[in-house]
Amino acid sequence: MSLAVQVLFTGLSAGGVYGLVAIGHSLIYRLTGIVHFALGEMIGLGAFVTLLVAAGTQPLTQETVSGGRMALGIVVGLIACVAVGVAGYVAVVQPYIGRSAVGWVAATLALGFAIRAVLDASFSRPAYVFPDPVAFRHVGHDGLVTILGAEVHVRSFAVLGVAVVVAAASAWVLQRTWFGRSLRAIADDADGAAIVGIAVERTRALAFGLAGAIAAIAVVVAAPGAPFETGSGTLLGLKGLVAAVLVRFGGLWSAFAAGLGLGVVEAALGTGLLGHLPGLASYRELIPLLAAIVVLAFRPLRAREAVD
Amino acid sequence: MSTAAAGAVRTSTALRDAALTARERWTELASAGAVAAVAAALAPLVLGGLVATDTLASGAYLALAATGLALCIGLAGVPSLAQGAFMGTGAFAAAHLLRHTALPAELCALLGALAATVLGALAGLAVRSLDAVRVAVGTWLLSWLVALALGALPWLSGGAQGLVVPTRRLFGFQPTPLVHYELGVVLTGLCALALVALRSGPFGLDLAAAAQHRGAASALGVPLEKLRVGAFAASAFVGGLAGGFAVQLQLVADPTAYAPLLSFELLVAVLVGGAASALGPSVGVVVLGLIALAAEALGSLAGVSGSRFQPMLEALLLLAVLTTGGTAFVPAALRAFRSLRPARRPRHPAPSAPAARRGGLRAELLTKRFGPVPAADGVSLELAPGTITALVGPNGSGKTTVLRLLAGAQAPDSGQVRLDGTDVTAEPPAERVRRGLVRTLQTHASFGDLTVLQHALVGVNRTRRDGGALRALVSTPRFRAENEVAEAHALAALDAVGLTAAADRSASQLTGAERQRLMIAAALATNPSVLLLDEPSAGAAHGDLERLAAILTALRREGLAIVLVEHNLRLVNAVADNVLHLELGHL
What DSSP letter does each residue of B52-93 carry, written as one string? Predict the structure, then answer.
């Protein structure tokens, strides 16, 4: 029982982040019909810009960062993510939309590897400790609380809470604001949206920024939980993509739910909760990836075939 | 004894023919390729002091893998992001075989390549009918799957330190880096030649057509899914072979060496060098090598390892190439070369039509509903050879749906299609085309840069017997003989629509109406007995309409059964024997 609770909370807190990244992927896919292969690297960029502003490149402990400087770091990191998101759309995505698939695939990949290389060149230590925006270690006993016999990190609740709030805010933006309605119109029919006076390109560029911002918030909350590497953002981007593919780039909430589910499945496989199959733990990342490829391969046949 | 002698004579005749054909087709480009090959083989002697030979040898294997990737990207037009994973599969399969068996080194590499081929075929099956976005996502996920599996499964990858690979003699030589380099160059050269052979053959034309317009290619009976699986498997085979030999050069199978970064670098090599030209990927790998040198220099300036800058420079180079309109190095050089010396005009055989096939089509009670809306509601019709049946009706009355049901692009909810007495209701479009039932599309879609003659050849491919990819690879005598016939048939089809004079022009230079006629020619080239035409008059000016009427009348005289979906009633009145009126799916 306590193990199950442990797994559930660990999984949900990881899954909340995956879910937000999945929302970003889903948003971008539905708006432009492409997949942004550099989204994960943008997350990494946001995280490291935050770190740079909050603490420089020096090694740091939880005590060395003041609240004010951390807040400034988060804001700058967020702005950087939005800016790179918008710039990425204008520079490497927009020129190829509807023209060459090889073009945008290669261009977004190149953007991702370029960002990753800049991070690798500037942050040369193997892993970095992220300061907590909130001092969770003072809550409970050393940042842990006991629920049904399981030791659960207080941070898990914060991560999950922030994830749900951000997901709800994104949903609200999509459903209730003019910007969101423009986005949905473009997703439905870009040409039609342009005819009724929606600035398609500008709205799409903003959406790329929004996707970046959603992911950046997620990572700032989640990063302090474990050592953060320059490649961690890339992996988060991959997990988000897997979640989005599993629900076929479906709606916002289904993408979020898929992310949560992915987090729980990984945690369950990783801790040997599912029976005691020897070595199953080492497959925890492989099984969801394989499942995503299978889901991709067996797309439902639509009434109108793609070829005509 | 006499049969052996006769065989020897046949062989020598065939060889002489092949040599003659080669001399006749030899161009300055072929000379340039030969010079490049010799220069590449001699490179270690010149660069000996500058670059370590094992770096060159790794580069040669990278060039081999990139040339294999060009099959997917350049020929099939599919963004495959898993070539590094295929290379890794070949490397680790070969490494395990070398460790646990006493098999010769070459055989281990070959078996590694076969393992990669299996994975490639599976990947091809998974993405066989997907659009480019999903192909990119699927292959990217596969690339990560292999990389993460190598990282997570020590029994597979030997853990963090990898698998140490025992050395064995290669083709009788001590496996020095120089031997590996020369082997890599020879294999890359062979692969480039194979690419050239495939590109101009039926397999390449079909792939190019499918890459340019899937719908139009499918209507002509091109087996899209089979082709894509084939392209992926072949591409993975070459990548796996490169991996299987490269791992013997590196002496250890390193699980981190086959990360998605490798797939990205191979993509960069192909796109920078030029996906469409056989030597482009190799040139791209040379450029990557120069980038590595530049990164090294930059790194020593900044005081960090140069490998940190390498992906950034590669990414910037790729972005630069993409933003300048995708002018990859080799195609740009080719264009400059061609502007200096115009290409020779190819010689064509005299047009000759194949023996005509004649037969009728019968549809019984075809019904297809989209939700509650019937697009076809119990449609029955009968077509006799040598008649034109016009299908008219308002927009949305189901005309195109009826054509699609007849051609097999869509399965009916109920009803039957019989071609010359045979029930073909369950057969896919490609099979129906082979039996003589072909359709053209409403749009004036064409296959982009293919020439007019090549469009018709895509149609002729459906009737070929000795046109398989393997025959094309080794260019067997029967294959070459059939080529002549195929070209004559294609020219006859162009003749029927009055486009013979345009045979060597690119289809993108034609007018809309000419492209409609071109696609009719491509359909005729499949030697059909039943022709289904969807609005051939779309985009036709006044003169075009009369021309079209004349073409259709001539085809009827030859005995074809034609269904004509048309809005233009003047054309219908001019040529149709029967007029069927369709309203809400009802006749």
Answer: -HHHHHHHHHHHHHHHHHHIIIIIS------HHHHHHHHHHH
In angstroms, what CA-CA distances link B45 with B52, B154, B178, B323? 11, 40, 10, 37
Give, as one character, the DSSP assignment of residue A91: I
CB of B66 within 8 Å of any CB in chain A? no
- B478-534: per-residue pLDDT in tens? 888 888 889 899 999 999 888 888 888 888 888 888 888 899 999 999 999 999 998
Write out pLDDT tens, residues A184-236: 888 777 788 888 878 888 888 888 888 888 878 877 777 777 788 888 889 99
Work out the angle at residue B37's Cα, subtended by the Cα atoms of residues B32 and B39, and round it to the nearest 5 degrees: 95
- Contact status of B153 with chain A (Cβ, < 8 Å): yes
Contact with chain B for residue A262, Cβ under 8 A = no
Task: Tell me how long chain A is.
Answer: 308
Taking the Cβ of residue B323 and every Cβ of chain A, the question of whether any pair is shorter than 8 Å is answered with: yes
A116 Cβ under 8 Å from any chain B Cβ = yes
B298 touches chain A (CB under 8 A): no
How many CB atoms lie under 10 A from the CB of residue B83?
A: 35
For residues B567 and A131, give the distance between their C-alpha atoms in angstroms, rounded to a whole number: 70
Q: Which residues of chain A have a CB within 8 Å of the CB of B144?
A: 238, 289
Nearest-Cα distance to chain B for A221, in Å, is 26
The rounded distance, in Å, linking the Cα atoms of A288 and A297 is 14
Q: Does domain B361-581 have CATH number 3.40.50.300?
A: yes
Nearest to A35 among B136, B275, B371 (CB): B136
Tell me which H or E stretch contains A30. Answer: helix A2-32
The phi, psi pair for A142, rounded to 5°, reads 60, 40
Distance from CA of A269 to the nearest CA of B (A): 13
Q: Of A102, A114, A308, which is closest to B316 when you measure between CB atoms?
A: A114
CB contact under 8 A, A34 and B133: yes
Instruction: Give residues with Cβ within 8 angstroms of B448, minimum separation 6.
Output: B212, B213, B507, B508
C-alpha to C-alpha distance for A91 and A111, rounded to whole angstroms: 10
Q: How far apart are CA A37 and CA A10, in angstroms?
A: 27
Q: Which sequence spans correspond to the domains of chain B?
A: 29-257, 361-581
User: CB–CB of A116 and B131 under 8 A?
Assistant: no
Å between B91 CA and nearest CA of chain A: 20
Query: Are the CB atoms for B71 and B191 separated by under 8 Å?
Result: no
Q: Distance between CA B511 and CA A253 in Å, rounded?
A: 48
Q: Please enumerate in sequence order all residues whose Cβ is within 8 A of that of B543, keeping only pairs 6 or more positions apart, or say none.
A: none
pTM (2 decimals)? 0.90
